[in-house]
Amino acid sequence: MLPRPPARLRATALGSAPLPARATGPANARIVAAFQRVEALPPAASGAFVVGDRGRPSGIIFIEGQRISWIAAAGMGRRLRDILRIHCTGQLPDIAIAELCTRCRAEHLPLADTLAREGYLSPIQLRAAMKQHTAESVLALDAAYAAEATDWPLTWVGREPRGHDPAFAFAAAEVLAAVGAARIEAATSARVDDQLARLESGDCSAVAFALLPGGQPMLIGATSDGGVRVAELGELSDWALAALGASEGFSPRVTHTYARSATSGGAVAWRYEGCAVVAVCTTGAAIARLVAGLEGLRLPMVLSTSLAVLQRIRRGAVALRERRRERIPGLIDGE
User: Fold this and answer.
1) What is the pTM of this model?
2) Is 176 within the bounds of a domain?
3) Do 50 and 163 meet the contact criterion of CB atoms below 8 Å apart?
4) Do 58 and 128 fall within a single domain?
5) CA distances (Å), 44 to each of 47, 113, 161, 205, 229, in order?
6) Pairs from 157-160 (Cβ < 8 Å, separation ≥ 24)
7) Domain check: are 24 and 157 in the same one?
8) What is the C-alpha separation between 72 and 217, in angstroms, rounded?
9) Cα 172 to Cα 228: distance, rounded to the nearest angstrom
């Protein structure tokens, strides 16, 4: 896992483009539908969804292994250069970026990996920059189709895997969260991001929701592991907001009873910075650690071991561990 970027880098606003109205959790229905197409791809799929006319696309969603390597939108090239400079601590002239992009296209090299390998940005800076540009590109693409009554027109184009470093790729929910985070104060987003960073592990995935003025939940944070899928956001937000609305938190006795009985993990929700945070733990040890940590921070919480989404996330976690074993022979749990 990459270390988290400093708050100074993460707090950079994604711009003032308004987030479209309702979706599953946070974003516009067209964005959600597109990202569900990404998650429905086979685990080994490599290629891109072309948005719009293949001869003159509005954008491209680059994908490897069900993760988004990058999303590019027409007219956003200049913005990419600006964002790279924002996140770079040294000098990064336009001509250097333009030459690098041209070379990557000609030699079929992953842009992010090449930027890091050749020392233009640190891995922390690069991941933050690519995430910001990807989220802004999503907003630009959706604005381009705002007048349409249909989903984004997507055409799948397969290609051989390029060996893209997964450290510079994003789960669909993580990109949705970056889109939502653009609508709240940068300082709040950074603090929620730090809270989620404490939960990054193979046995725990988490998401965070803010409430829009009408009471609708909007995804603003997600751990990078991809344990929570876009289709699962609605169920998690519905449960968390209902449970937290009905209770200020379980008593210590009830909390410990739930934690002891959750031998196969469970879901935990709590409030932080005015937002609702939901973590899904796939093992009993993980939920015990989380409960102990929240108690140490004096954060009231609610728990569940019966949500239907828990079974799906547990199955997904098992499948992910199996794929990792296939890629890295000899890998065992806990390594």
Assistant:
1) 0.81
2) no
3) no
4) yes
5) 10, 19, 9, 22, 17
6) 157/47, 157/48, 157/49, 157/50, 157/54, 158/45, 158/46, 158/47, 159/46, 159/47, 159/48, 160/46
7) yes
8) 27
9) 9
pLDDT per position in the chain (335 positions), as tens? 333 333 333 333 333 333 333 333 344 788 999 999 999 999 888 999 999 988 899 999 999 888 999 899 998 888 888 888 888 766 777 777 778 888 888 887 877 778 778 887 888 888 888 899 999 999 999 888 887 767 899 999 998 776 667 778 899 999 999 999 988 888 999 999 999 988 876 688 999 999 888 888 999 999 988 889 998 999 999 999 999 999 889 998 999 888 888 888 899 999 999 999 999 998 999 999 999 999 999 999 999 998 888 888 877 766 655 554 554 444 334 43
**Of 141, 117, 154, 189, residue with least CA distance to 27:** 141
What Cα–Cα distance (Å) separates residue 28 from each residue in 33, 34, 113? 9, 10, 30
> 255 is written with which tokens?
């909390």
Residues 201 and 162 in one domain: no
Residue 182 CA: distances (Å) to CA of 13, 100, 154, 227, 247: 6, 28, 25, 22, 29
User: Of 144, 215, 208, which Cα lies nearest the Cα of 181?
Assistant: 208
Contact 282, 313 (CB under 8 A): yes
Q: Which domain holds residue 226?
A: 185-318
Task: Name residue, tokens 């954008």.
Answer: 59
Picking from 277, 279, 286, 273, the residue whose alpha carbon sits closest to that of residue 304 is 279
Residues 177 and 332: their CA atoms lie apart, in Å, by 31
- How far apart are alpha carbons 12 and 164 in whole angstroms? 26
Residue with tokens 């093992």: 283
